[in-house]
Amino acid sequence: MKRLLNCRRSIGRTAAAITACGLLLCQSPVQAGGPIRVGGATFGIQGQPFVWDPAAMPVKYRVDPGPLSKRPDGTVVIDHAAGVARVKSLFDTWQNVPTAAISYGNIGDILPAPPYTGGPVGTAQNFIAVFASCDAGTQSPIIFDADGSIFGGLGLPRGVIGFAGACKLDPVNGRFVSGLAALNGRFQDGFSVPQLTAAEFDHAFAHEFGHFSGLDHSQINVNVLSGQPRACNPDDLAGLPLMFPILFCQARSAAGLPVLAPDDMAWISRLYPVTGSPPPGKTLTSSAYGTISGTVFFTDGITQAQGVNVIAREVGNPRRMAGSVVSGYQFTANLGQSVTCTNPANPTPQTCTNLNGSQFGSRDPRKIGTYDIPVPPGTYTLEVESVFFAFVGGSSVGPLRVPIPNPGRDMTLPNNVTVAAGQTASGNDFVLQGTPARFDSFESARNSWREPLPLWQRREELLAEWVAA
Amino acid sequence: MLVHWCTPVRRLTAPPLRKRFFEAGCLLLLVVLGAGPLPAQRGAITSPQNLDKLVEEAAIIVRGHVVSAGVEPHHELTGLSTLVVTLRVEETLKGQASSTFTFRQFIWDVRDRFDDAGYYKGQHLLLLMIKPSAFGLSSPAGLEQGRFRIVRNPEGNLVAVNGHGNAGLFHELAPQLRAKGVQLAPRLAALVEQPTPGPVPLDDLRKLIRLIAGSK
Question: What is the pTM (predicted TM-score) of this model?
């Protein structure tokens, strides 16, 4: 309770500091350790992840009518029917999570979008037209670049396997309206260099379809990066999320593992929970997952720390069964500023706050350092670490585009946490050790607030509290 | 968060220890800001490539400082957002470049349009750029893998790190270079054998790139 009071007192100061931090680091719109987009004050639902409309399932997509892969001489390697089946199978990876209420439906070929008139997209010009129709929310296209000529025309290097993401968002209801994915068939033509195995190719696009579905990157078992590519330890690989930012290890399926790691399954279930009476093949999310939550604080125990990766590892199975999220994942990475107004005569939140800030992420300062991790019932250890320094921008994990070093020391909470299905084990707070003091050693953070008592009397009060403690 | 360490503290005189913390925090912030963001294009997935493959794919490799960066529509491909970046060239390691080098890159993610995909004026970069397409579009080889930011390490030496934290940069590089007949000095040989990702000395990276670019 006392911490809560102190927290409230520190809210304004912390918000100001975070604002300055955001301005200095020029953060981009928020990404999160679980969801890829979180609603802001005036865009989406504040603090809530953007998701496809659960009431309008399945997510409807359209597929390129051409082949998925062909050689430079025109020989088709993966024809259209096989490509469609491959896409369906990749979406099924997510759809088949028994505790997730998301489904996908192919509703036909990509619609014409002048100058594209139908048929295989095939060229950069056609791609741009289809891309624009996705931006307009007209359709969610899955584009086959059968021989890499689209990517080549767009000036992308030969190492790009594909890309995916949302096109149009509904700013009122916090929903995805349309999305796009482009698959580079060159990697499957059996001829070009480099090639990927079918398992690696599918691994890459199951990851991309995770983004398409609204998931951000996750960081668990980041130590794999110290090893050799495609040769990761099986235990580390088992816990390594499909949504790990870079394709570094061997494909999970090639190692006999399910495509989705426990963290992937937990987060897709969190975004799309199965509620009410589960349909056949589905299970109530609340019967299979609990939540571990808390807040990460600086050493003062008052100021919340955003951007620290929190991992829950199951006792007895720590490398394989783990979940994670980045602290402050619901909070904005860039508050903007409220010093000037675009329309001072009419000061509203829209005209006088958030100037130049991100439209994404909550403005509730109580969420600056909070975390919650969905996990299967069990007993877990909790640890914090830095987001890997090179996970920047497109590889970023969590709300900050440029990761910060953990301001304190990496640590594990001394007590294990047990969580039951449908329950939340809350209050698992981290007070980071070793962060530089913000105040003189004789001063408390609370003294920065204007209070009725003069400073010397507050010190007396604090001293009494310390003695009592 | 870093700003907490640098926010000027009110009222009371700082003791020397706190001053040192404050200065260290400010220095760290400056290093981080100086290092700057090095985002990949968002939402893309790329095949891991080692330095040999990256250099091989690059048509031009330059080191320099960003003079300008901004998003512009493409003159020919209507409706296409492109990022136009100009560098003041300080060194050309492969290909030919004049004193300034400009490239135009396709970007698809709204966030890249918002922040110029992380390029900004003054940024010190080493870029391994592929040959422009028929539409004049180009990108770093391997996207974020061919885009190295250059910063000073705590010892004051320049180091380079790409958007994968250099993970996999030297994977199987030594045998590939041996096969090409490239002889490495002991220092460079030791460098390419290191499995741990992380920043590498800029001078060493430059030498390696020159050796690879000069080999057949």
Answer: 0.80
